[in-house]
Hints:
8 copies of one chain form a homooctamer. The first copy, chain A, has a 5-stranded parallel β-sheet, sandwiched between helices. The termini of chain A are close together. Chain A is α/β, with parallel strands linked by helices and 146 residues long. In chain A, helix 1 (15-25) runs parallel beside helix 6 and helix 2 packs across helix 3 (56-77). Chain A contains 6 helices and 5 strands, in the order E-H-E-H-H-E-H-E-H-E-H. The A-B interface holds A 56-57, 60-61, 63-65, 67-68, 71, 85, 89-93, 95-96, 98-100, 102-104, 114, 116-126 and B 56-57, 60-61, 63-65, 67-68, 71, 85, 89-93, 95-96, 98-100, 102-104, 114, 116-126. Chains A, B, C, D, E, F, G, H: This is YtoQ family protein.
Amino acid sequence: MNLIVYLAGQIHSDWRAEVEEKAVEKKLPLTFVAPQTNHDRSDDIGDTVLGEQPGNLYRDDAASSINNLRTQVLLQKSDVVIALFGEQYKQWNTAMDASTAISLNKPTIIVRPKSLIHPLKELSNKANVTVETLDQAIDVLNYIYE
Amino acid sequence: MNLIVYLAGQIHSDWRAEVEEKAVEKKLPLTFVAPQTNHDRSDDIGDTVLGEQPGNLYRDDAASSINNLRTQVLLQKSDVVIALFGEQYKQWNTAMDASTAISLNKPTIIVRPKSLIHPLKELSNKANVTVETLDQAIDVLNYIYE
Amino acid sequence: MNLIVYLAGQIHSDWRAEVEEKAVEKKLPLTFVAPQTNHDRSDDIGDTVLGEQPGNLYRDDAASSINNLRTQVLLQKSDVVIALFGEQYKQWNTAMDASTAISLNKPTIIVRPKSLIHPLKELSNKANVTVETLDQAIDVLNYIYE
Amino acid sequence: MNLIVYLAGQIHSDWRAEVEEKAVEKKLPLTFVAPQTNHDRSDDIGDTVLGEQPGNLYRDDAASSINNLRTQVLLQKSDVVIALFGEQYKQWNTAMDASTAISLNKPTIIVRPKSLIHPLKELSNKANVTVETLDQAIDVLNYIYE
Amino acid sequence: MNLIVYLAGQIHSDWRAEVEEKAVEKKLPLTFVAPQTNHDRSDDIGDTVLGEQPGNLYRDDAASSINNLRTQVLLQKSDVVIALFGEQYKQWNTAMDASTAISLNKPTIIVRPKSLIHPLKELSNKANVTVETLDQAIDVLNYIYE
Amino acid sequence: MNLIVYLAGQIHSDWRAEVEEKAVEKKLPLTFVAPQTNHDRSDDIGDTVLGEQPGNLYRDDAASSINNLRTQVLLQKSDVVIALFGEQYKQWNTAMDASTAISLNKPTIIVRPKSLIHPLKELSNKANVTVETLDQAIDVLNYIYE
Amino acid sequence: MNLIVYLAGQIHSDWRAEVEEKAVEKKLPLTFVAPQTNHDRSDDIGDTVLGEQPGNLYRDDAASSINNLRTQVLLQKSDVVIALFGEQYKQWNTAMDASTAISLNKPTIIVRPKSLIHPLKELSNKANVTVETLDQAIDVLNYIYE
Amino acid sequence: MNLIVYLAGQIHSDWRAEVEEKAVEKKLPLTFVAPQTNHDRSDDIGDTVLGEQPGNLYRDDAASSINNLRTQVLLQKSDVVIALFGEQYKQWNTAMDASTAISLNKPTIIVRPKSLIHPLKELSNKANVTVETLDQAIDVLNYIYE
Lengths: 146, 146, 146, 146, 146, 146, 146, 146
């Protein structure tokens, strides 16, 4: 049984490649989908498609409309969602993707360091499982196939 | 027509009283509901009800389970949601409440300063309206009754 | 049994007052809700609340976000929807409101002149009832109470 | 990941072939579905299947019932919807298809010329993305696969 | 706790008055709603509102569109549905109303004579409770209040 | 695009074979599913699986529980439903299957002779299309693929 | 804001009266609803309404159909569910009511002694809050009103 | 037509292997999914993934969060659910899985010995079919393919 896994979270490091590698090592039949991970491309996509916008608010709104369409398509196709939180960045769209997934009854795993226990407590409580490392998240996915 | 408005956001200042006052001034038939705004009470509620928990993770999980029950009851009763973001705090449960509201088709207004345009762009794009001040949010509610 | 009726359609004439009058005459326990019917107010509301926007596209998008919030609140409260089409104007948000109502399982009455039979045929077929005059629409509402 | 794209809009020109060509050029794994694009066939289908109807209203209602069945089957199978608006024709079933898609949480792209910004503002605001050309719409679909 | 009860079934006898009387006797806080019970009015309503239709099929379709709107409004307001079947008449819209109620998760009671056990077996199995007399149906409603 | 079509209706004649043949002739990529068409098997299935039941009511309830499970599995897998009504038999589970399909937003075609226009008028009005012959129903399915 | 609370659990002791008393003491604006708490009445209701059934299976099925109708009406009206588990009895319909409530997004509190932690662990994990005493459950309800 | 069948129930005996064998014998195109059937693994999975927990309640909650994620993934993929009850064990998560399946409109078969008729009566009444042996459950699945 193949499963599609949406990887929500920051796009400043290549943590998704790490997840995919671990899944390959364990021979899990998973397909991973994600937001646009090229950060500049993600920020520019509105202006790139629609032309230069009159200021940052409009530029960001244009980009986010296309990013949201992409996420909506891929999240709806997903069977499981992993949402990674770290100590840097605001990560409100990670919180948004995780909450949307939970509202859509998508089984959801949150990955966050111990330092974020307190500010993420309500979201962690609503998610299915909260872990601290990507290895643990993969262990949870692996458990589905045992 | 009475409407119930859920006020999502931080609980470190008394911004909700300000909203309620403005609504009274404009004689809008609104009932406001909100998370527990006594910060210590909110953090302690798990230990208070369930007894002392073995460490911060468990203490936070216990508290959040009761906070989430409260929010679920009140959010489901609401007709409109206002979610306030500011420059301080992580505010991931504000993002969670706003996203949940949007997923439940609750009309949602985000209030955030200009400085947060970029990190909130995807969530703003999914909300109905994004404004910068509480006065503007009240103006939007007022418009429903014109 | 009181019912709430959303009156979708153009805001250039006072047809809603006519509907309300007829309902009062027949002593029907109906509450009518509607979009903003002050046309300038409706077009200006974005700039009024959010400040002047940089061009028509942005001005219209700002206004429509607030108009859509209003409609979402009121349409969700409604038990029945009447959507009036006439020979003037594009009326795409009338079509949008009627389609949204139908998708939400709100019983929907379309009012349109004979001249619009052909272009409205798919929407008419999905609505519950299509009539030609406001009197006929009121007759349908009256029939609920017989 | 293959996606099915419903192409809503007028059936008087061959714009759909243009979209499909562009998708082939970019090697996007998309399947396109659409309403009946043979205009006479679309208008006649009621009489063709059910026999001659007693007047235009009945003829149009018969045709639209079969057109609506077709659209309902194909729209429910779709992952994304593109809705094209132009300066000619009433296009109320384009608005109906786009609104239905949005209500069903289908990611939706509207394509419309600048001249239609104002009358389409509420629908544009509810869609995920609004662009001006088919090339831009294809760029948005392409972005899902990057 | 007041409950609204939709009484689906034939409109050739005054069985609904009997139900209401029994409810009054037992002082149950129930409001009863029903389809149009004036049979001629029900059959004529399409022509009455829309004008004379060109033949029976069109006359019946026009009438049923208004009857269906009425039923949709009232069924959606209901907390419980009673569907009465008897040995006369086709009663397919009774079956339709009961099935729709079950699909909408409305608790549903079927009343039918022993002679109809076999042809109603699949529908009875999907309903909550099947009884043979109106008294038994009222007993079931009464049980909610004990 | 393959579609699954549920064929609701009586199981006393082999009309389903006729439908399948016509679909093969037209090379339509359709898979047909249906209730148990062996009438004795359908009536006996409760006793066969669960052992002899104490009387007809219990025998019929046991059989219908297994028939309903079968229908629920297959109807949920279907993309389109055809419901055939004829002049014989009560056909209340045909009405039940058609109504359930409509409530689940399954595009639905009713086939009935002219003589049943009046008693089926409300159900016909809720279905997408009503025709008089199986050939017409196949024409409608064929139209999806044009 | 009045809330309706469904009290799921065994009907062999008068624990519900205790809950209501505590709510009155705290002046909480709560209405409590519950299954039939007269145990004999609950077991006999099928035979009482439908006549004597041919054996225990049929007697139990008849009773449960009426008990389930009652629960469905009252659970759908509820805003919060409390499900009490104790060391005696099988309590599978308590588990059923709690699971149904959770599936319907009703905020749910489980009350169970420490001795049942292990067998109830999956259900506790899906509920919003799990406590050990009725006082704690009331404390959680009280927290909604602070 | 392949179907996926979720096998809910205790994990202390190898009854699932028996079901799968019987399905192979009958050449039914079924894929079976199930909870973790290694009992120690199921109980330990929380500590194994997350590290040792501070006491049984926390250990059980951690394990159940991962077990629930697994069940949610697999149950959502299923077309039919079989829930086995026996005389040993509390089996509240069997009741939970069956109730969740019913709430999600998954056709559900309960298998239970005669001795459990009374305590399972409400759940049996809500399930599609209740049988006494695994052979009977397989007979019901087989019937779908006849």
